[in-house]
Specification:
The structure holds two protein chains of two kinds. By secondary structure, chain A is of the alpha/beta class. Chain A is globular and about 70 Å long. The model of chain A has no long low-confidence stretch (mean pLDDT about 90). By secondary structure, chain B is an alpha+beta fold. Chain B folds into three domains: about 110 residues, Butyryl-Coa Dehydrogenase, subunit A, domain 1 (Orthogonal Bundle); about 110 residues, Butyryl-CoA Dehydrogenase, subunit A, domain 2 (Beta Barrel); about 140 residues, Butyryl-CoA Dehydrogenase, subunit A, domain 3. In chain B, about 50% of the residues lie in helices and about 15% in strands. Chain B has a four-stranded mixed sheet, covered by helices on one side. Chain B has a four-stranded antiparallel sheet with strand order 2-3-7-6, with helices on one face. In chain B, helix 5 packs antiparallel against helix 7 and helix 9 runs antiparallel to helix 10. The chains are: A alpha/beta, B alpha+beta. The interface between A and B is medium-sized, with 13 and 14 residues.
Amino acid sequence: MKIIVCVKQVPDTAATMSVDNGVISWGDAPLIINPWDEYAVEAALNLVADQGGDVTALCLGKEGETEAIKHALAMGADTAVMISDPALKGVDNVAASRVLAAAIEKIGGADLVLFGQQSVDTDTGLLPVQVARILGWPSLTLVSKFENVAGDEGKIQVLRTMEEGGQIVDSPLPAVVSVTKDYAEPRYPSFMGIRKASKAEYPVWNLEDLGIAAPTASVSWPEIMEPEQKEIVTEIIPGDTPEEKAHNLVDKLIAEKVL
Amino acid sequence: MVQRMVRDFAVKEVLPGIQERDRAGGMAPFIIPRMAELGILGITIPVRYGGQGMDYISLGLVSEELEAVDTSLRVVISVHNGLSCLTLLQWGTEKQKEEYLVPLAKGEKIGCGAFTEPGAGSDFANIQATARKEGDSYILNGEKMWISLATAADYAVATFRTDPQAEPPYRGLSTFIVDLDSPGITRGDIHGKLGVRAGSTGWINFQDVRIPVGNLLGEEGEGFKTTMSAFDNGRYTVAAGATGLIRASLEASSKYVKERTVGGKPLSEMQLIQEKLALMALDYQAARLLYLQAGWLKNQGIRNTRETSAAKLFATEASFRAASEAVQVHGAYGYSDEYPVERYFRNARGAMIYEGSSEIQSLIQADYALKKRRDKKLRRELPAYDPETWV
């Protein structure tokens, strides 16, 4: 079974974000693979271990920002493709999904395209659905389990985990799947994998290679500003006994018109 | 990526619960098997000997990351990878490497280094444990003490006196690979240590332990040299680890001083506090450059006794300073185990004693400076890192 995993490079989740002159900055914090994408890579590797086939990591980003791709390769992905073009600076979701769909077609399609459920920087979770729509494939979002996978028969059954509960969905292949954190803890890259990834060569495609024009973004960013910092005051409610503390707390909440 | 991978392991899997394990004493049983599974126990050994084929600098980076979480993790690296695997890689015959290095590098077996004795540490030339040749065996007798992983290890690289009459005495020593399950060996853990309580330190007693002559590592009488080679590698991991402890002290302090206020101002605004952080940051950079220099020399196959000793001396002293200042910065909270810095402080202390005390390292530095000491070519040098043949 042929699987493409879309991975994204994002600032480290521990980074402190700020806005400097209208530009978002994360200081000198390193860029990492979007942590949600690690679950998608883990799922892809397990599916291939079970069904045979290969995993391609696909990344849209600035040339030279190789951390996400290298991480996926170090975890065990077989090959990778990077898409990079100056015209793609600041693209929105719709534009990014068109580019990714074009790249998936240029790779020659796949049985499954996997995404993490969202990215930690923009947090929309829209790309899997948009890419599925453009490709005309079923979109299976928030998948936590692959129940019955029959790559050779072109069928798959997955468990979607939603707030309301689980939903078991049968789908034909090819399909686009977004994988949640409930799937399984992603493996660490192995030392062998890290070495392999550090030497790996992979194509970098621009828009011309993909044969598409620069997609126009529907969303623009006229101004970026930092949200106002909220003053948070911590108060410890006094009282000699738990009952007295509870009474004092209730009085306070009533006085503050919370209750 | 090596650093991130090891950091993820240490932070996600070991850090939760480290305080409880440090209080209770002893190593959690899952840790060493997990390190083996991740390849950490064979990181700087060629793939053909069961290792991961990474370079010596990676070994340093791994040591730094592990000790930034807890010293007990880095101690495993020092004795298993440093004292035992790399000594076998340097001095072992092909047969010994096949038989012992391969399972060690794969992490199927655990190794330690048994050199120190109750009456001889810094005075290593005067160790008393003996190995007597008898037919095709050596008979081992004596006691080794302060041995990390004494009760967890399967094999020990251990040095004994084979010639009691040798003059000077260091010429009468020989090093062996010992299967610690051999009859006549008893071992136990030492309790009541100041630091590294979440680790294992113990003693090994040898009573008429018979091992095959084929387990002699190097030649008879070469034991002082093999042991010093072992320390060149063990000390390297201690230096890199201590660097991680400086970083941990700095990070904990930087976080705390931004949160804690005095007179309505955060501690981070106080210049006397800033000076402490500045010195920690400086020590971190200096310690890191010193161990990277030693690692770079190892990669080239250049002798690095002087540079490794300097890195070990500087980093361990600096890590104790940093941990002590971290406690100071945290005030009374730093004195309690509510914050990790008191653990850093206790853990930092041992490294100024083990694998050559600060005084011994100072003497080594002075001897080089005074040109009293020159490195002579060893019969077997630590192999340079070769990306072609190691993978």
